[in-house]
From TrEMBL:
<keyword id="KW-1133">Transmembrane helix</keyword>
<feature type="transmembrane region" description="Helical">
    <location>
        <begin position="190"/>
        <end position="206"/>
    </location>
</feature>
<keyword id="KW-0813">Transport</keyword>
<feature type="transmembrane region" description="Helical">
    <location>
        <begin position="78"/>
        <end position="99"/>
    </location>
</feature>
<dbReference type="InterPro" id="IPR032879">
    <property type="entry name" value="FixG_C"/>
</dbReference>
<protein>
    <submittedName>
        <fullName>Cytochrome c oxidase accessory protein CcoG</fullName>
    </submittedName>
</protein>
<keyword id="KW-0249">Electron transport</keyword>
<dbReference type="InterPro" id="IPR017900">
    <property type="entry name" value="4Fe4S_Fe_S_CS"/>
</dbReference>
<keyword id="KW-0004">4Fe-4S</keyword>
<keyword id="KW-0411">Iron-sulfur</keyword>
<dbReference type="Pfam" id="PF13746">
    <property type="entry name" value="Fer4_18"/>
</dbReference>
<dbReference type="GO" id="GO:0005886">
    <property type="term" value="C:plasma membrane"/>
</dbReference>
<keyword id="KW-0812">Transmembrane</keyword>
<feature type="transmembrane region" description="Helical">
    <location>
        <begin position="327"/>
        <end position="347"/>
    </location>
</feature>
<keyword id="KW-0472">Membrane</keyword>
<feature type="transmembrane region" description="Helical">
    <location>
        <begin position="152"/>
        <end position="170"/>
    </location>
</feature>
<dbReference type="InterPro" id="IPR013783">
    <property type="entry name" value="Ig-like_fold"/>
</dbReference>
Length: 464
């Protein structure tokens, strides 16, 4: 004390106690397990699936090609990727406005991988009470063995996750062979260990801290909520005053509500909050508290739903509208974007044609022919071989013909071929100027694959 003022220092950071979520069973727990297995299956299995020798999902940054379920997207298809990202954002807004943080509770990678790491922790260290006792106890043979087993599973799974992540950007089969031979490239090695470390740290140690302090979604979700959004809520009017009692006790005589203050909802919460304190930013809507509370209500002989999915209006006794204008607006926007993506995909040219003029020789003159040399950059955007024939048309010039190539060109799936092109016309039909012409690429059946405009140059000196 100095002049009546305390000089005691106040820490700016308080260490967060470790959260030990308890196992829970119930309908929402089953949904989370189904969602987790489905998403993990997609993540770990998709890179190994191939169609006609092409990996089904591959973001080939080196060759600037994105292979997604048999469709090959190029940098020129950036509009499609942008539309898909916009659809993902609108889907998030739609489900958030409808039922809160469903994404966080069931589909967020942080939630899914944390569940896996928690499962491995339970396998090696036991249930909640045993894990707490193990952490508080001294280091002995049992503790070292259990902790080592857990770390082995965590590290192995994290490395597998990092390897799979790189496999979405590098052909995974080739990556696996080079990994066995210890022949990975520098960047491949970096991203494998970086993503493995991120998985290990986020799902193994940070866990709820990511949701509470690092995730931006928790910060702006309130902008998408309203009083008719479905959220997980504790029924205060029904549950209070809370207090323990025997199953045979008459709660009305005791002056108690339905909540027996068992703390089950707190023990199963992966972020360590008490849902009875009201909706909180840390709540990820996993519904574990609903499952455990329903189980307690069943055992006590009380009606389910003390903790449930409901709306703020319903809790206040006001009319609730789940299907309201903003829901239909989001849904209409989603359908419009999906339709637009479908139209863009179906309207894509199977062959991308870029025409490059030969800058070293804009024209050539033979005895009876004026020629313009070009280079065609032909990109096969399909998953099959294309037999491409080149033709030329022009409204301004007559007599144009393809001098080279005279035969069709075979282009493999996803291949980019550079093809020399020479277009000529009789000198006696030539007119001075830059004339618009159309390069037409057709397949073996005569179907037009692409039409690209360029110019045919006829200088005055060539006609002298």
């Amino acid at each position: 004390m100095s002049n009546g003022v305390s000089t005691e220092s106040i820490p700016l950071y308080v260490k967060q106690p470790k959260v030990y979520p308890r196992e829970v069973k119930g309908r929402f727990a089953r949904l989370r397990v189904i969602a987790a297995w489905s998403l993990l299956g997609l993540y770990y299995v998709l890179p190994w699936i191939s169609i006609n020798g092409q990996q089904i999902v591959l973001f080939d940054l080196v060759n600037r090609q994105f292979h997604i379920f048999g469709i090959t997207l190029w940098p020129q298809d950036l509009i499609i990727l942008s539309l898909l990202l916009a659809m993902a954002a609108l889907t998030l807004f739609f489900f958030t406005a409808l039922a809160g943080r469903l994404w966080c509770g069931y589909a967020c990678p942080q939630t899914v991988w944390t569940e896996v790491f928690l499962w491995m922790e339970r396998v090696t260290e036991g249930r909640r009470n045993k894990r707490m006792k193990l952490d508080q106890g001294p280091w002995n043979k049992e503790k070292i063995a259990r902790k080592s087993a857990k770390q082995f599973l965590w590290i192995t799974f994290a490395l597998w996750t990092g390897f799979t992540f790189v496999g979405f950007f590098v052909p995974i089969r080739d990556l696996g062979l080079r990994l066995v031979e210890f022949n990975l490239g520098g960047w491949e090695t970096f991203w494998l260990f970086f993503y493995a470390f991120a998985t290990y740290g986020n799902a193994g140690y940070l866990r709820e801290q990511v949701c509470k302090y690092m995730c931006p979604y928790a910060r702006f979700q309130s902008a998408m909520f309203d009083d008719d959004s479905l959220v997980i809520s504790y029924d205060v009017n029904r549950g209070e005053p809370r207090g323990p009692r025997k199953k045979s006790a008459d709660r009305a005589e005791l002056g108690l509500g339905d909540c027996i203050d068992c703390l089950g909802c707190v023990q199963v919460c992966p972020t360590g909050i008490d849902i009875r304190d009201g909706l909180q930013i840390e709540c990820i809507a996993c519904a574990a508290c609903i499952d455990v509370c329903d189980d307690v209500m069943d055992r006590m002989g009380y009606p389910r739903g003390l903790i449930r999915y409901t709306t703020e209006n319903a809790m206040a006794g006001k009319p609730t509208r789940i299907l309201r204008p903003r829901i239909f607006i989001y849904l209409a926007a989603l359908l419009a974007l999906a339709t637009l993506v479908g139209l863009v995909l179906t309207g894509r040219d199977p062959l991308l044609v870029d025409v490059l003029r030969d800058r070293t020789a804009l024209h050539r003159v033979t005895e009876q022919t004026l020629e313009n040399p070009y280079t065609l950059k032909l990109s096969n955007r399909t998953d099959r071989d294309l037999s491409v024939s080149i033709g030329v048309e022009s409204e301004a010039l007559s007599g144009l013909r393809i001098i080279d190539p005279t035969d069709s060109v075979i282009i493999a799936p996803s291949e980019v071929a550079n093809q020399p092109l020479t277009i000529g016309m009789p000198i006696d039909r030539a007119r001075v100027g830059m004339h618009e012409i159309t390069i037409i690429a057709t397949d073996a059946a005569g179907n037009i694959l692409n039409e690209t405009e360029t110019r045919f140059f006829i200088p005055a000196r060539a006609l002298e």
